[in-house]
Amino acid sequence: MKKKQWQGWGPDEQAEQHYLVQPRALAGGGDVRHVSEFLRASGWRDKSKTGGPLRMESPDRTVRIAYDPYVLPGGWTIHGHADGANGEWSAHLGRQTPAEIVAGLTDALTRPCSAHAPNVWAPLQEQNWHTRFEGQDYMATSPDGTAWMQYRQSPDGAAMWWTGAQDKQGNGWTANFTPNTPMHLVQAFSTELASPDPVMRPRGRVPHSAQIRTWSMSVKPSQLSAWQQARITAARAATWARNSARSTRPRTSARPYTPAGGARTRR
């Protein structure tokens, strides 16, 4: 286990032990606030009841997100209403889906859709995932074999995206997206799923798995708070910029008034 020590903290704070975990897909659920605080900073409404599961709603009320750890199997449910471009859609992600990977999808819900055509497989191929056909299905597997993404199609024509991660002891998670899920959201999820960057977990929250690598690091509360605040600040800034752009957008000029008898030509 490698040791990393961060420098430059104040003398009065007590460092706490954390771990960087890789691959991220096997790092466990993590802190739900990584998702919820970003959404709040982006203008989403918190519909949660005290002591109950997390429930959030988009500013336009077209998307709802819930996280419920109190039921089995528990986890994330994301539901989008039908609009002019897409039909109704939903995504279900297991409780141990890392919050950083969930945030790939939920963060994308706060941003305008890119003009470029989405490609779910591109982020996976860029990280050397093995892609292939398996009968009617198309499959991508991580280089270490612990994570996968699959577009499944049953004989009756029903289709869905199925993804997840599992170690040799059987620990892990699965998630699925209905076919109508906007492709840019699935691509945002696959980008975070394939990312080689480790994620951080506090001591006692690191899964027991022979297939993860960990690096010990000392983190002071102020440093951890600053990292979290930077993400929230970025969300607020992006939301402010979008709202400002809408409010300053020029209105279409009204047509000049023309008398009912038509315009007169001056001679």
TrEMBL record:
Region (Disordered), start-end ranges: 240-267
Sequence ranges assigned to domain DUF317 in this UniProt record: 57-112, 141-199
Low complexity bias: start-end ranges: 240-260
Record-given protein name: DUF317 domain-containing protein
Source organism of this protein record: Streptomyces afghaniensis 772
Phylogenetic classification of the source organism: Bacteria, Bacillati, Actinomycetota, Actinomycetes, Kitasatosporales
